[in-house]
Design goal:
The protein is an alpha+beta fold. About 40% of the residues lie in helices and about 20% in strands. A five-stranded antiparallel β-sheet has the order 4-3-2-1-5, sandwiched between helices. Helix 1 packs across helix 2.
Length: about 400
Amino acid sequence: MPARKPDHGYAAQSAFDRLILLVATLLRHPGVGASDPLSADDEAHDTMEQVRQRLQETAQEQGIPLKYDSVHTLRKDLKTLKRYGVMAERRYQWGYYLGTGGLTWPELKTALNALRSLAIYQQDPLISNLYDKIVRRLGLQPDSENFIYPVRSHINQSVVYTDPAEMMHKRCYRRTLFEHLEQIEAAILNGQGIEIHRDRQAFATSELGYFKVWPLQLVYSDIAWYLLCEDIDSGRLAFRRLDRFSGHFRLLPNHKRSLDLQYQSMEAAHTLRRRGWGLALGTAEEQKLERAGKQALTHVTVRFFAEVVPFIVEGELRHPTQRLEPEPKPRGQPPSYVDYHVDLPSRSLPEFSFWVYKHLDQAQFLAPDAWVQEHRRKAKQLASRFEGI
């Protein structure tokens, strides 16, 4: 009776070994085979040669003989892994990897450091749960040999509760939009309009009530989380503090749009943010004029004095339009002041002023005159509070 022919190409031990060693290689070296844009060699040959070399290294490390590891054979093996869903059916232009395992060990450490910071200091409850899951899954606890030491951290800490479970535990529970983070993220990606309700004022001018908005992005800034959103009726873009909204959340079934439109609005908001100072983006009318190029910027000059000059001078990237002009002095003599020039929209006066006021007696507005007078009024108001003390 003739021997039964194998029904696949990996019945031979050598072929099976090669396929499994290829899997091990892609696990150890995710991204192997990335093309070098500066190389003049043929891209396909160059990338597969990288894979072949790494495969040989893995075989040597494991002490397994490797046969028939030509570029042609490896292409066939990669097609096999795609056929079984181990790899996705697409081009791997920037290197091969298995499933979702697209990170090397050093890259994973860096990513987990960033997640840890978001979980601990920015107190993102979804990220906190994700980070805990990954750490447990990979056995990365402090007492393990693979423990990832937090080399980097971003310690701007939230000043409000963000985790409903923590609020319940500490008996200070209050319903906020933090209960709906997953639904908000889904609405952002689906281009779905939502209705939310603001029930707390931060300033006398704060708006209260129901808002129908396009949610665009969840943003952490300085001390709190914000929802970047676009008002459905007026088109106004705004960063709104999540904790100032109640737990009311409703999807608007008749309001849907493409992810491309979502992205365009998000980019427009960040363009306004970069053009201004802080997160105040102005009214709908101000934004309309500004985006149309019909809103002139105001040239602002603030003089900072000796004690804070080094701090001001080292901030080379505070704003794209800034210019620093130190007091003219002979070489080697430190200036007693530096003039900080910047072009800003008028909507940015309050937030820019908050930054200037932090320096108290070490700062003085020089232009424009309206901002000079406002600073003078604030200074007198501050001085009056100390009269009679």
